[in-house]
Amino acid sequence: MTNRFTLSVDMLGSETETNDILKGLNQSLLRNLNYKFQLYGSEKVIKKKIEKYKRLINAVEIIDCDSFITMEDKPSDILKSKKNSSMYLAIKSVTENKSNAVLSFGNTGALMSLSLLNIKTLKGIKRPAIASIWPNMKGESVVLDLGANTKLDSRYLVENSILGASLASILFKIDNPSIGLLNVGIEDNKGKEEIKLASDQLKELSNNFRLNYYGYVEGNDISVGKTNVVVTDGFTGNISLKTAEGTAKLFQSHLEDAFKSSISSKMGYFLSSLAMKSVRDRLDPRVHNCGILMGLNSLAVKCHGQSEYKGVSYAVDIIYSLLENNVNKKIRDYVSEMHSKLMN
Amino acid sequence: MTNRFTLSVDMLGSETETNDILKGLNQSLLRNLNYKFQLYGSEKVIKKKIEKYKRLINAVEIIDCDSFITMEDKPSDILKSKKNSSMYLAIKSVTENKSNAVLSFGNTGALMSLSLLNIKTLKGIKRPAIASIWPNMKGESVVLDLGANTKLDSRYLVENSILGASLASILFKIDNPSIGLLNVGIEDNKGKEEIKLASDQLKELSNNFRLNYYGYVEGNDISVGKTNVVVTDGFTGNISLKTAEGTAKLFQSHLEDAFKSSISSKMGYFLSSLAMKSVRDRLDPRVHNCGILMGLNSLAVKCHGQSEYKGVSYAVDIIYSLLENNVNKKIRDYVSEMHSKLMN
Question: For the complex shown, is ipTM > 0.85?
C-alpha cells in the first residue's frame, strides 16, 4: 500500500537556506515518488533555485508569499497582522484538507499556537506535545514533550505516553514500545505528586492493555536507551534537551581545541576526520533534529532553524512514514482502549 | 591568612576505591598543608592502603566503622538502624564541631536528608540546594539546584540565586557573578508563574543591590557560559544535568565506535589519544563532578560514586577554598542585605 501525500512547506522565517530545503525534498523524492509539496515562499527565489532538481519541479506547487513570521513575533501579533505569512498559509492549507501535514523551520512558538488554534487536537487528547527522536547507545528513542505544554499534570503525562508510543511503534516498527517516565530517581517514592499519579495510572493502563509502561527513568537513561519512549512535561523536556544539545556542542568544541594542541593530534584529527563527521551527523541537531507536534488532527513538524539538506530529507521521510502508517488512527485506538480500560 | 580545616570523609558505601580517596587526599595535601582528615571507614583497610602516602598518615585520624549506608537505604531506615554508619558518624562530627565539612561518595539522598536534619539550614535559608561546577565554552559556571529540593517555588529560586552567587564569587574570584534563571525561553512572558515571580524579585534585588541578575537563560546557555550562575529547581536541575551527562557519554561512545571503523581513523585515534584524554578529564564526571550541598551551617559535599583520585582532590580543594573564604558568612551577608532591601 502506497499513498500519495502532500506536504505544506513553510520556506521562510529561518536561517535554513532555500537550496537546503529544495535539495532535501528532492532527496526524499528520489527515494520515494509518493510525495507532493506545496512550497510557501518567494516564487522568484524558489523558481530560480529549483532549476537543478528536475524531478522536484514536477512535484511542487509554489504559493508565492513575501510575508513571514519572525522569531520575535508573538502569537497575538500574528493573528492580527501575519495572516498572509508563509507559515499561516501553510497551516491553513492543512486545515482546508489541501495538504496532509505542515513542515516549518521557523518560530516554534508560533507554529505551536497557530497549529493548536487551527488544526485542533484529536478527540480525547487535551494538549499536543512536541516529540523528538533522540539517539542513544542502542539506537533511538522518542522523547516528549519538548515544550508544547509546560504545565506538569498527570493527565498530560498519560496523554504524552500514548502519543509517544504511537510514534515509536511506527518509526521503530515495534508493537509495544516501552515507556519510561522521567523522574529524579527510580524508586517509587521519588518525584512530584503529579508524576506519582501518572505512574499509577500508567501501571493501571499497562495491566492487560497494550501500553508497555516500564516505570521511572532518569536523565542519563535517555542516552542509555533504557526505554523506547521517554515521557516528561514540556518545561523539563525543553530545558533538559537544550542542555543536552549544549553539552554535545561543548564536547565537540573541546575536542576540536584539544586536537589543535599538538602536531600529532593535528595529524590524528586529519586521519580521523571521517569518523568525526559520522559522529557529527549522528548527533548534530542541524541534521538530526525535528520536533513533531503530535496530538493534532494533522501533523505539524518543526525542523531546526539552521537545517542542512539531510535534516530536511530526514524530517520529510519521518512525516511520510507517520502518514503512511496512519499515526492518528493509532493514537485514536490507544485513546479509546484507554477509556474502556479506565471505565472497567 | 591560612587556616587549618578538618574534613570528615565517609570512605564507605560507594564504588569509589579506598586507594583513590587516599591518593586524592594526599594530592591535595601536597599542594596545601592546612588539611586534616577524619577518615570514617575500615581501619584495617585504610591502614594498609595509606602506607604509601607518608605525608597523609600524619594528617589523618581513622574512625573505624564497618556499617555503611547503601545506595538502596531509605532515610527512615537509616535513622532506625544506621546510626553507626560511616556517613552518619561523619556528619555527626561536623555537628559536634569536631570537623568543618563532610565529604561522601555514597547515597546522595541519605547525605541530603541526614545533613538537613543534623547540620540544619543557615538562618534566612529555608531549604538547602546542591550546586555543581559545570564546564562551559568560556570556563566554568555554577549550576544549582541539582536535586536537593524538587519543589518549584519563587522563594527557593531566590535563595538558590544567593547560594550560587556566594559560591561563584569565591570559586571564580569575581565580585558580582551574573545569575541566570533557567527557563524555556528568554522572553518575559515565558515559563511558569513561580519563575516569573522569582524573576521579578531578582530584578528588584539587583536594583541598587549587589546581586547581578541577568535574566532568563535556556538549557543550551549553560554550555555557552552566558552567566556565572544558572539557577533552577531541583527537579529540572537534576534531570537536565543527568541528561547532559548521558549525552557526553553518548558522544564519547559514538566517537570511539567511529574511530574503530577504519585503519586511518584507528591511527588517528592513536595520534590524538592525548587530546581525547584532555577532553575526558575536562568533561568526565568521575574527575570533575561534585555536588556541593549549600545553605547548611556546614558544608556537605557529595562526589561521584565512581570518583577517581583527581575527582577526590578536586573536591577537597573546592571545600578548602569555600571554608578559607568563609562561604557561609558570604551567604549570611547576602541574606541580610536581601532582607533590608525587600523591607525598604
Answer: yes
